[in-house]
Specification:
single chain, 69 residues, 4 helices, globular
Length: 69
């Protein structure tokens, strides 16, 4: 597994799905489909996405800080 950081390339909105896909070793498209399907279920999916958008460092900042979750 790689460090959890939002990539600078390959992101659609905030890069959260791309970061999670890279972390778990699946394609970004698969992670995006899983996210969209999870939005059909009740729960705070959008709030979680926005929170991760702000909490996860971008790749260019993660390299400087050496932060790895």
């Amino acid at each position: 597994m790689t460090a959890l950081a939002r990539p600078t390339n390959g992101r659609m909105i905030g890069g959260v799905c791309a970061a999670l896909a890279r972390r778990f070793g699946i394609s970004a498209t698969t992670m995006r489909v899983i996210f969209v399907l999870s939005c059909l279920l009740p729960g705070p999916q959008f709030v979680l996405y926005i929170a991760l958008w702000f909490l996860l460092p971008s790749e260019k900042h993660a390299d400087k800080d050496h932060t790895a979750w």
